[in-house]
Amino acid sequence: MSFKDASVQEIDQVMQEAWKAFQQYRKTTLKQRADLMRTIGTEMEAIGDELIRVVMEETHLPEARVKNERARTIFQLTSYAAACEAGHWLEARIDTAVPDKGDPDIRKMQVPLGPVVVFGASNFPFAYSTAGGDTASALAAGCPVVVKAHPAHARTSELVAKAIFRAVEKCGLPKGVFGHVHGASFETGKALVTHPHTRAVGFTGSYGGGKALFDWANQRKTPIPVFAEMGSINPIFLLPDKLKQSAKEVAGLYAGSITLGTGQFCTNPGLIIGIDNEDLQTFIHELGDAIKKIAPGTMLHPGIAKAYGEKRKAALEQKEVETVAVSEVPAKDQQGVPTIATATALAFFNNPLLHQEVFGPYSLIIRCADKAELLTVAEHLEGQLTSTLMATEKDMKDHAGLVDHVQDICGRFILNGVPTGVRVALSMQHGGPFPATTDSRFTSVGADGIKRWVRPLSFQNWADNLLPDALKNSNPLSIWRMVNDKLTDNAIA
């Protein structure tokens, strides 16, 4: 089954419906929005095995992974529903009038931006796509959502979209609260981003795709925010004392992380850095032996498989790069071959290609001459979603400068663990300095993700009965608020 690209006229109609729906949806209660998200989860579950089967056909993902991702997506929906009702993201602030000083009564809260366009991700057909985190968080904020299905799993997106349409209808909300279009061309994306009713954009994908959306958004007469996750090599720093104690164990840990999901996670560890000594050589040998035994996996779709093959080939053909190990299990069509390579720090400094993400089961080990060169590698790194230290407390003290620098280039700083696996939790930061994302101040995972789709608005000298519920004296929502610089959930007497 194939789907035609939406025409400019069709996109205009969808965006007009979204704008019309916004005028009503922005006024819904937090409970109404939460009910919608929970109903979407119920409708997704109700599709049953057909949804699992279609995803497996379109993406080559195994059944267990597909079922786990559906469960994660439904959990995201219920998690955002709970966060929506709790109201912390509203950031209600109240400073009552002080007549003696002539200070007015002024109250502030977050209000929704308007229709949000979400671009489905290729590597997560559920969790970062049609009913994924961007959609759920925008609905929580009070924003209608228009999703552009990813062509790699268009049938999956269509099934999930129908579930959302059913949920919108069951909740008695206007049709335009959710819209769904198909499109493989840049023209479709440009029309969505530049439409005058679009107020924000969510994207997970390549640097080229995200940067194009970002540029179009900023070329508009009225620029809008684009929250794009655009890739990361997620550097791992192997510090000497830790490696001396457990080189073999660390190698085993990373063999699993590098090849998890055939390396098709945005947090895949694509770069490993250490000081070249006997312990690092032990690590390289052990990691190589483990990688040789791991079978290639079928990649999500032909486009990802082709890109991996081309970028892997280009990296390995660099004269400074030495291949350490490849899987000894023969690869079939569209499979990603687990691969480890190595190069010196000097080669890394001089060759920008070695800084680029190779999206798949590939990792490059950088050998540094000493502690100073290790720090210099860190200073040459671009913004990342994650960075990891494999280190003892002694290492942390001995490399204090490195620790300080690395936290400046990432959104999630990991100690003695792996970056793969993104927990849906309030404390999760899934975003990092450019070019990992377009705005490192926000996260696309966890309840704080709602804040991408809102803006602050102050109300001065309004009568209590005219204020939004979040700012009324009686606190009818029972949310936590800052009242005269004190955090409280009490009513104002």
Structural class category: alpha/beta
The pLDDT mean sits at 97
| Spatial shape | globular
Largest sheet: 7 strands, mixed
Strand order of the largest sheet: 11-13-14-9-8-15-16
For the terminal residues, how far apart are their CA atoms? 62 Å
Helix content estimate: 25-40%
- From the structure provided, what is the oligomeric state, counting identical versus distinct chains? single chain
Share of β-strand residues? 15-25%
Task: Give a description of the structure.
With 493 residues, this protein is α/β, with parallel strands linked by helices. The chain has 15 helices and 19 strands. It has a 7-stranded mixed beta sheet with strand order 11-13-14-9-8-15-16. The longest helix has 24 residues, at 63-86. It starts with 7 loop residues before the first helix and ends in a 5-residue tail after the last strand.
